[in-house]
Amino acid sequence: MAIGSFCLVLHGHMPYVLHHGIWPHGEDWLYEAAAETYLPLLSVIQECSFLKGNPRMTIGLTPVLLEQLANEYFKQGFQSYLRDRIEQASKDRLFFEKENQPHPAWLASRWEKFYQDLAEQFDKIKQDIPAEFRKWNQAGAVELLTSAATHGYTPLLLEDSSIHAQIRAGLDSSERILGFRPEGIWLPEGAYRPAGHWTPAISWGSPGWRKGIDEIVGQEGLTHFFVDDHMVTNGDSSSHLNVHRPVWVDGNSGKKPSMAAFARDPYICKQVWCGLTGYPADGVYLEFHKRHGPKRGLRYWKVTDRKSDLGKKDFYYPDDVPGKIFEQSRHFCREVKRRLNEYKYQTGKHGVVVACFDAELFGHWWFEGPAFLRDVMLTLGADPDVDLRTAGNFLQSFGPDKTVRLPSGSWGEGGDHRVWADEQLKWLWDIEYRCETLFGKLTYHLPWRQKSKLHQILQKAGRELLLLQASDWPFVITRKQAPDYGIKRFIQHFSRFEMFTEIAEKLGENPKYLAGLNEVQKLQIKEADMSDVIFKDIDLNWWNC
User: Fold this and answer.
1) In 260-320, which ranges are continuous DSSP H helix?
2) Helices (H) and strands (E) in the chain, counts
3) What contacts 256, CB < 8 A, 6 or more positions away?
4) What share of the chain is helix, strand, coil (3-state, %, to 5)?
5) Residue 189 annotated to the active site
6) DSSP string spanning 489-501?
7) Which of 405, 360, 421, 397 is nearest to 193 (CA)?
8) Poorest-pLDDT segment among 78-82, 207-211, 267-271
9) d(CA 505, CA 495)
10) Is the distance from CB of 145 to CB of 61 less than 8 angstroms?
11) Helix (H) or strand (E) holding 504
12) Which of 127, 356, 423, 488 is the most exposed place for a label (fewest CB within 10 A)?
């Protein structure tokens, strides 16, 4: 009998980027993720299943990511992207051959094959990545999670109605695209707050009592979510062992807990996540930051030394990688087993090690990451002492054994909300709060249920509200990863929201107002509808608590 279980949780997310730039910020983010993470993950599951390895993964595919992967425009753009990569690899090979550099020329030929194989895989699954994940969900190899529609940072939203709408819109997309309604959710940025007195991110509005995130998501029929370890250990001073069992969440609502929370194991995650000592920092692996040529350059160098500058990187040698993957995957599996043994010895109970990561760490940031996951799945799958389980399956078999009152926090820097509530973001939250308030006022007072044109305009405004609420915009601004792009996108969606709400107000006063729109206004509406091709069937009742 197994001493415990292992649960791998991968969080797959991408902000809405279709029709909003290509390189360096925009659609290329999505194409790279599909090529380097999502298709390779599907290959790992396929290979493990073929080898009778009993793979089990819990994978979150956020609704905004699903919407894009299912979009025909993405499918066409992704095929073009793969062709471009193949062509670039071919040009690089000829260049290196001309320069009498046989090794990088050989690496270029490997890139050609890599992208050719991806193109064949994409065609084989009929260009439908969500459907392929759904297939493995039905087979029991994968549990798919939902999330807030656009990854809105729910603890900081002004109105509970906005949180409800984010969750309901997300569930609608997940169910429509995947064909079923997920029971688990990845809270955006792992962010949570309990019920209680709430103060806005800025001096705007009035502080007051708010429902907890657990109560809101629980009302939508969801059963479990995931938090960073400090949320559990800081929530109850006696619960230092609870990271190895899910806990019932006491959201301070006075009601019987119905939501379970899984905490990630900090020690196990550090083996991969830590930039200083984590496995991806090993010198044999492909260097992410150095590329050959302009724009979409390919990578030919290895990490070499994580402290060395890019000019001192050595060429990549793939033959050095399998041995390192073997060594590190075995170490990882031994540590998982050790953690489970410790918990079993201390409590006598069957525990679970939960390892939560951003999905793009595997394949995109750490090129060899999917091979590492394959070896981990195969090794633990063959170990009689460890059960591979999805989170939902573990919850059904064992369930929580304690109730913990979780504090407010996230898995971001500092474990709190500072990344998304930074001083430099006050202007953003001022705009966001005003948009929430205005939308609530219009959907309450305007007769959209009786007037179809007004209904359609408010749906468009709701779409822009969801898009401007994405947690990605404040994140890339605060972290200075792509601040100009983040500001541009937020302002763009705000401007469109403002346009549609102004039209809605005028339309409420004059049913014939649309007929009098000038050419500029008509063009702006058309441009918004062509660019933001997402959430086409918005239900305005989503904002009703």
Assistant:
1) 266-273
2) 18, 11
3) none
4) 55, 10, 35
5) yes
6) HHHHHHHHHHHHH
7) 405
8) 207-211
9) 15
10) yes
11) helix 483-509
12) 423
Tokens 């925009």: give the residue: 26
Cα Rg of the chain, angstroms? 24
Residue keyed to tokens 């050595």: 314
β-sheet bridge partners, residue 362: 366
User: Which one of 32, 67, 172, 189 is the catalytic residue?
Assistant: 189
Show the tokens assigned to 384.
């009689």
Please give the C-alpha separations between residue 203 and each of 162, 408, 427, in angstroms, as whole numbers: 19, 19, 11
Q: Cα separation of 33 and 36, whole Å?
A: 5
Lowest mean pLDDT segment, chosen from 1-15, 372-386, 393-407: 393-407
**What pLDDT score does 237 carry?**
46
What is the set of domains in the chain, with CATH numbers?
4-70+128-275+354-414 (3.20.110.10), 424-543 (1.20.1430.10)
Tokens of 413: 């820097």
User: How far apart, in Å, are the Cα atoms of 216 and each of 4, 176, 213, 224, 259?
Assistant: 31, 21, 5, 12, 10
Q: In which band, very low, low, confident or very high, does the pLDDT at 251 lie, cut at 50, 70 and 90?
A: confident
* Residue 279 DSSP code: G
Q: Are strands 247-249 and 260-263 parallel, antiparallel or unpaired?
A: antiparallel
Q: Which helix (H) or strand (E) holds 198?
A: strand 196-198
Six-digit token string for 460: 């468009």
In degrees rounded to 5, what are phi and psi of residue 67? -55, -40
Helix boundaries (H) for 26-180: 27-33, 39-50, 63-69, 72-98, 102-124, 129-138, 160-178
Question: Average of pLDDT values for 77-92?
Answer: 98
311-364 pLDDT, tens per residue?
999 999 999 999 999 999 999 999 999 999 999 999 999 999 999 999 999 999
DSSP state of 239: -
Q: What is the pTM of this model?
A: 0.96
Catalytic residue among 47, 84, 97, 358: 358
Name 418's bridge partners: none
Average pLDDT estimate for 493-516: 94
